[in-house]
Design brief:
heterodimer; A: 125 residues; mainly alpha; Helix Hairpins; 4 helices; elongated; B: 490 residues; two-stranded antiparallel ribbon; 20 helices; 2 strands; 2% strand
């Protein structure tokens, strides 16, 4: 039991972060908190990807016969890092768009509370 | 090596950039350049389809790196078929959008057209990509531009767009997590390579989790019931021309990703043993068809009624996927094509009515049939097709879906398809009755209405005529394109 936790703690942590993120996105009424929940969820995925490629005592994946490039146990898989760099760019863009939308919403309704906005939307129609 | 697979999205990406720069100098250049860009992509798609039909699947390796190391773009029967649909509807909608944008959002023409091209680039990128992670990036390009385009609409549009952004990002993250699971289990991101390695993977639980995550993620993107909650608001409050562009193709591309995943990446036999995912999708589709059709009957807003009808039509496609046999899948793919034409035509009619009268409540449409005969003629054809009356194309996709249901021995699905057609008839005949038979209410905006300008009317009429032509040509499409597209999966 304890050994499992020690072996797999990054996975438990990122799962916990994902749960917190989803709770923020679904359960919170404040739109800004929803956005923060989305951020936490995205970060958890990044951590999950990166933690899978961790190897103790391994080195960078450059072509160098001395480091034993033929032995995969001796180098860190660079692909998850590269994928996550792209994913981070995507997430930055998502956050930018979401923040711009939030600004528009605040200028039109002077509130970022979902219940209050829903009430105002009903009054409009 | 063939360049066509990569030219389809790249010409759109390039023109998105050119349009923005040229638009800063001369605003008048925006529209012709946009049409040119989409036209180029459409021509490449047609050429791609011809080549696929003649020589088989076309591959392009980015930077010359051969997969599984490099990223591969693939044009096979399925993706060439989808690329032609997306670029054709894109072309028609861009032509349609000019007058509508000029009326609704005149000061934002330049960035809007750059975004439209970027959206189409994202959608075609999803279609041609043969790499799981590359697909995620294109999925987010398409989604982000869709959020921005929707938010340009009326007062409530930013809220609809924000809700869509939150749920859409959740969907994309689920998809990314699923791709991560696949990568850690197989060590590859290339779709063909993953499909090759998967049967040898011993740890089935990881793959089951990956399938579940990807299906939920894509379900959010394609608005599969009950993950459709973002859709009605987004389609209702977006600018008319944006809805006419997004509604016919965006959710369909989500359905395409689902079909691609379930057929090309995870083989059907492998799935049914471990996790009956197609069965779940089929039943969600069946429930979605019924619930969304009933919701559509309850709507007073024309655009919102069409939006709920979109959710129902996605349900048909999910039904076809859920049958997991060639006939059902042909029905689903044919319905992707037919529904793109029908919903494009219907939303263009809604935009045309709004352009001339500013109305969207169905109850105030009385007398429009006399004032706008051509627009309403196109609406009638599309409505009959949605109900499924031959020889319109809607009949043929439902016919294949029914055949698939009979073949699968699932009589509930057959009953759902037949009964939901009656529900479709209820909500479309309600509008037709109001438009043609109700006495004119003397509403000033209706009395002064006339046909929308030619640039808006002709795309609507082309789609209306296309509905009839597709109905007559459906056997040709099925025999030549769709049967090879599904044959190797079973």
């Amino acid at each position: 039991m304890i050994q499992t936790i020690i072996d797999y703690y990054p996975y438990y942590l990122s799962t916990l972060l994902m749960a917190i993120g989803i709770w923020g996105m679904v359960g919170k009424h404040n739109l800004m908190k929803k956005l923060i929940g989305m951020n936490i969820f995205q970060t958890a995925i990044i951590l999950f990807f990166i933690s899978t490629s961790v190897k103790f005592g391994a080195t960078v994946p450059t072509y160098d016969p001395e480091l034993g490039v033929t032995n995969p146990a001796l180098y860190v898989n660079p692909l998850p890092h590269v994928l996550m760099l792209t994913a981070i760019v995507v997430m930055v863009a998502t956050n930018g768009v979401a923040l711009a939308l939030l600004l528009l919403i605040y200028r039109r309704y002077h509130s970022i509370d979902e219940r209050e906005i829903s009430r105002m939307m009903k009054e409009d129609s | 090596m063939n360049q066509l697979p990569v030219l389809i999205p790249v010409s759109l990406l390039l023109f998105s950039f050119i349009v923005f720069l040229a638009g800063l100098l001369r605003k008048n250049l925006t529209f012709p350049l946009t049409v040119l860009g989409v036209l180029a992509s459409f021509v490449f798609s047609i050429l791609g389809l011809v080549q696929v039909l003649r020589y088989g699947t076309q591959h392009y390796y980015i930077g010359g790196w051969v997969p599984p190391i490099g990223i591969e773009y693939v044009l096979d029967h399925l993706s060439a078929f989808m690329a032609v649909i997306v670029t054709f509807i894109g072309l028609i909608s861009v032509v349609y959008s000019r007058r509508s944008f000029l009326q609704e959002v005149p000061e934002r023409i330049v960035p809007l057209y750059a975004l439209v091209l970027l959206l189409l680039a994202g959608l075609t990128g999803i279609i041609v990509s043969g790499d799981l992670f590359n697909l995620f990036v294109f999925l987010e390009i398409a989604s982000l531009t869709a959020y921005a385009l929707i938010a340009v609409g009326g007062k409530k549009a930013p809220i609809a767009a924000f809700r869509y952004a939150i749920l859409g990002t959740l969907g994309a993250c689920f998809y990314l997590l699923g791709v991560g699971f696949i990568y850690f289990a197989t060590g590859s991101l290339n779709m063909a390579d993953v499909a090759h390695i998967l049967p040898e993977v011993s740890d089935a639980n990881t793959i089951i989790a990956a399938v579940a995550l990807i299906v939920i993620g894509i379900g959010l993107k394609m608005a599969l019931f009950p993950l459709h909650v973002w859709l009605p608001d987004a389609y209702t409050y977006a600018p008319s021309a944006v809805t006419a562009l997004i509604a016919p193709i965006m959710t369909k591309v989500g359905a395409y990703v689902l079909i691609r995943m379930l057929l090309s990446v995870f083989s059907p036999d492998y799935l049914t043993d471990a996790l009956p995912v197609t069965v779940i999708i089929g039943w969600l589709g069946a429930i979605g068809v019924m619930v969304a059709s009933v919701m559509a009957i309850a709507q007073r807003d024309f655009r919102r009624m069409l939006a709920y009808s979109s959710v129902a039509q996605i349900g048909y496609i999910a039904l076809g996927i859920g049958m997991a046999n060639p006939l059902g899948l042909i029905g689903a793919l044919l319905h992707i094509l037919n529904h793109a034409f029908m919903k494009g035509c219907l939303f263009q009619v809604a935009g045309g009515i709004r352009y001339r009268t500013g109305l969207w409540e169905i109850s105030r449409f009385a007398g429009l049939g006399r004032r706008m005969p051509w627009t309403m003629g196109a609406f009638t054809v599309a409505a009959l097709s949605m109900i499924g009356i031959p020889p319109t194309c809607g009949f043929f996709s439902k016919w294949y879906l029914v055949l698939g249901g009979v073949d699968a021995g699932n009589w509930v699905f057959v009953a759902v398809i037949v009964f939901s057609s009656l529900l479709n008839a209820v909500y479309f005949f309600r509008v037709l009755e109001r438009v043609y038979l109700s006495p004119p209410s003397g509403d000033a905006s209706v009395e002064q209405a006339k046909e929308p300008p030619k640039l808006m009317l002709s795309p609507t009429l082309i789609l209306g005529a296309g509905i009839m032509i597709l109905g007559l040509a459906s056997i040709v499409i099925v025999n030549n394109v769709l049967e090879p597209a599904v044959s190797w999966a079973f």
